[in-house]
Amino acid sequence: MAMVLTLILPRHEAERPRTSYPRLLGSVVLLFVQEPLLRVRAVLAMLIFATFNVLWAPLVLPLSAAPFSLSHTEIGLFGLAGVAGALGARWTGGLVDRGRGQLVTGLSLLLMITAWLPIAFMGLSLWLLVVGIVMLDLAIQAVHVTNQSLIFSRRPGARSRLVGGYMIFYSLGSALGSIASTMTYGAMGWNGVCILGAAIGLLALLVWALTLRVGR
Q1: pLDDT value for 14
Q2: Whole domain around residue 99: which residue ranges?
């Protein structure tokens, strides 16, 4: 990695205004105050990545138990389906550039909710789980790419700070989704996990619908 970075990084750093680290951190908070779109998209990030971990955090539990009794290696292979879904979301950036960011978000959130239906019926066939994983990851990555494209367009010169603030909510959603899903699985089983995932998706769709004007 050091050799690769040596080859691709610029030889000379561009001059930029010097500022203290505390002031730099404070400017991230200021961006949230000044940019309503950042607030909305950060909340959507928190919800979609909560949904992401609602699936992946407890998935090993039903798959390793009867009747599946899969090994950890076999369970890990389901991650390849997620990669396929993530790669499929690359086209979203072009749609956002053509002013279709809100449409992409709405359709992706609907897809994210729908994905929980085949996931819920994985007991009938593990292929249903694969289909659901591809749908879910495609939807989540599409919203994620759209989020970043939209917020970067508002402040092109503050991308690092925008990413820093945005990823706080990303990480918070991932943690909350993991905690909530494992607790739900212990209390209500896999059906409860699927209901939780779909409910978070519905909440994300509601947030998007109520804030449509912010993204215009």
Answers
A1: 65
A2: 43-215
For 153-172, b where at least 16 C-beta lie within 10 A, e where not — what string? eeeeebeebbeebbeebbee
If one counts every other C-beta atom within 10 angstroms of the C-beta of residue 36, the result is 14
Alpha-carbon distance of 30 to 24, in angstroms, equals 10
pLDDT less than 70: residues of the chain: 13-17, 88, 215-216
Q: How close are the terminal C-alpha atoms of the chain, in Å?
A: 40
Q: What angle do CA 49, 30, 28 make, to 5 degrees?
A: 50
Rounded to a whole number of angstroms, the CA Rg of the chain reads 19
Structural domain contains residue 8: no
Supply the CATH number for residue 163's domain.
1.20.1250.20
> CA separation (Å) from 119 to 59, 85, 87, 127?
10, 15, 20, 9
- Residue pair 151/28 in contact (Cβ under 8 Å)? The answer is no
What domain count does the chain have?
Answer: 1
